[in-house]
Amino acid sequence: MFIKNLENLQFKAEKEQSILDCALSSGHAFEYSCKNGQCGVCKTTLLEGEVIELLPQIALTDTDKQQNKILSCCCAAKTDILIDAEDLSALKDIEVKTLPARINKIEKKTEHIIEIELRLPPTAQLNFLEGQYIDVIAPNGIRRSYSIANSRRKQVITLFIKKVNQGKLSEYWFYQAKENDLLRLEGPKGTFFFRENRKQLVFLATGTGIAPVKSILDNLSELNSTLDIALYWGNREPEDFFWQPDYANLNLMYKPVLSIQNKAWTGDVGYIQNIFLNENKALNKVQIYACGSLEMISSAKNLLIEEGLDEKHFHSDAFVSS
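The structure assignment produced for this chain is given below.
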């Protein structure tokens, strides 16, 4: 059996292996993020053939199903199939590696957020695209995914980590981790990265979803980009804005937004997608990069597409529960 797309890409379909995993193991990459059916980033249209469902396709709506949409991370080919997924050529030279790393620095940013800096062995190199994530395997064997918060030109890997109540890895990060601890990381992963385009860039981020956005902004700053850029960052409390964008060479408009009213707050209050839409009606001129909670991603995507945004100009990385 074979999997094909509209660009005449063809690769072998392995029995009971997801379409996405078949693509990745063949050296190709389609859009994806969570790989467990929750985020919907890997949604594509099944044009010909039949598939079997390996995992529940949670992110699909009834309308999606009527339109023959499938999630490539959840489905395997039952026959030869044709799908409309785009092969992301920018990822062709990105090799996923498993590498040792040591904790270089632990910095408390707020009561619930820490910054972790990892250093790789002198002979090791992790080539990634800004916006991608890595899996970290802690000494206790627990694996979790974290977006990289710096550009590839840095000699370290920076992560922003939020405490999760009863989180299996939070116990380690917040109460046991110490400098020089030996960890393993696997990556880079994901398809959240900057696409070359002359449209205005709009970043929508919530919480630690600012990490991949910072990574992309760092890179654009190092390249002295002349693009118009807008960043809307949403949080629950004023103290949650633990990082401030400082890019003197970028044409950047930054707007912090609280999701709930606070007496100490004089800025915007509401949902970042609504704040953005109230200020921007020319959706044909923008390219959206959204990162954060699954609820924000879903709401923002549905709202903006309904208002006229081309779905191809909405890129996202949803943080979902492990």
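Interim note for the steering committee: Residues 200 and 307 are 17 Å apart (CA to CA). The chain has six helices and 19 strands.
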